[in-house]
Amino acid sequence: MSRAIRDQVEGRLRLSFIDLGPQKLKNIARPVEAFEVSRNPTERASAVTMAKGPDAKLSIAVLPFTTMAQDPEQENFADGLTEDLITDLSRSGAILVTARNSCFAYKGKSIDVRRIAGELGVRYVLEGSARRQSQQVRINVQLIDAATGNHLWAERYDRSLDDVFSVQDEVTAKIVEALAGRLMEAAPRNRPKSIEAWDCCVKARRLNEQSPQAAREARLLLERALELDPDYADAHRWLAMNLWVSWVHWGDPIEPNKKLSMEHVERAVALDPSNAGCHSMLATILQYERRFEEAAQEFAKALELDPNDADCWGLKSDCSLLSGNPEQSLAEIEKAFRLNPIPLDWYYLLKGQAQYALRQYEAAVQTLRHETTYRTHSRRFLAASLAQLGRIDEARREAKMFILTNPVFRISYWATTQPFQDRGLLDHFVEGYRKAGLPE
Length: 440
Description:
alpha/beta; two-stranded antiparallel sheet; 55% helix; Rossmann fold; 19 helices; 7 strands
């Protein structure tokens, strides 16, 4: 549709068009330019303006900041700023904030912000750029109302590198003020004293998500961050997570990893008691220490501090399952998916294990065969689900493929490390593993 024709149609029929970009349609080889049409611009029936609840108008996605240079260090800096802004906005409690992984799915893609908002179900989008040169930074940000395409607020910051965390606080306050209509006072964050420590932490968070081998490299970076700044709460938190995952999922020795993970997460909470992520990590480790009441209290505190924390809802889902409540576990991971619609692989693992626990084997197979999680350590639940459906040959193939990448896995070790409060539920998982042919 040409611009002239669109203008003519809009003028005569009072129609409004939103360009959704090229779309793949059935039986048409080439992508077709698609538009959303509405008779009244204020009443567009799109995901951007359709109410999803009383706070739907206060929903935002922070897109990954761009950088002009093709430089990994510049990219790392821009990504770190984006992640911190997502965390800071989420803590305000006044705005529904799309989780980091869903926002980063659009990194490097040239897509109309209105289309992104529609796919993520948000009303507002923040985009920006960042450049770091020597000891100076330049940050540009703009807040867009995706329903109209209008810019609500834009600002450029030229500051010293040491002032970058003050810029983050200022940007967060401006966005909350623009959307919620008033400044929301949040407890101050535990900011690092060293920009190099912050860099190490940003890089480590990426590596933690990739593979056990990459996560071991992340551990070195986190240890370096703490050498530079022993009081950096997020570095303690991420190191605690790294150590915990190593013995729960990768087969590393329980000790000293278990003891060290508890020490680091307790230190993180002590340093930054208003950090929801620190409390949710402490809750998870407490659950695996079988200190169930304390874990529940920490999860409650984390969600009080940040009800938008999708990862916290996911971790809580795991603990609800271990506590013997798979129905609640499934509801919580579905809440996490709503907050983070393009999540990491472990969200699918948690959903699949909850479905398995509820004996929803067909649904579990569908979940666990999602391309995001297939071929990860969630494959053991896929094998068990197939086995419970009587599809033994398929189950045995999946079990063999799982063992190729997880050669140290043993049913007995897994059962020992999982703090199930319901013995029958634990036996149900063990039964599926055995039917699939996983090693004892």
